Amino acid sequence: MAATFGKYPSLDKQWRKMMFSFYPYLSTKNRNATQEEWKIRRLIWDFKDGKAFSNVAHLVANKLIQLYGSETKNIIFACVPASSAEKNEKRYKNFSSMVCQLCGMCNAYDHIKVKGEKSAEHDNVDKNDIHNKQEIEFDQDFFKGKKVIVFDDILTKGFAYAIFANKIEKLGAEVLGGLFIGKTVYTTN
Hints:
Blueprint: H1 9-15, E1 18-26, H2 35-48, H3 53-68, E2 75-79, H4 85-103, E3 106-107, E4 112-116, E5 134-138, H5 140-143, E6 147-155, H6 159-170, E7 174-185
Parallel strand pairs: 1-7, 2-3, 2-6, 6-7
Antiparallel strand pairs: 4-5
Helix pairs in contact: 1-6, 3-4
Organism: Bacteroides gallinaceum
Keywords: Glycosyltransferase, Transferase
GO molecular function, one term: glycosyltransferase activity
């Protein structure tokens, strides 16, 4: 993200915060993936389909406990909405509930409503169009004065994360940073 600093001043604040990803996610443009890279791809794809949420929930909850210990009880867990209300429910409803049960965080799922659809950041759309066809309604009272960790499945360039984090901070919350299953890479070492 460091190369992007300064180019999008309203997003820089979020990109300077903690952004942790568990795995490198090799772009599907690279067809020469190793067996391990295919395993990571399948985990992320299964998560997006609502299938692998338990494994990912344990991974995320353990990391949150490692980072914040007993303070997790004072932090809200909020997922960057998927491209539609249907996909958002399939992907995040059970997952966010399990993460919060495992680590004692407060679940924001029921306090964020998704209407309409958006393009995914990795669909190569202009950053200004990511959320233009999607309306996200927040329960402002729920977020005001709270600390928040943002979660998204894949960190590509960070626009979706930063835009969402900015919206949460406009409600009076403090975003501590973001967690991601994978961070997109385009070549292997």
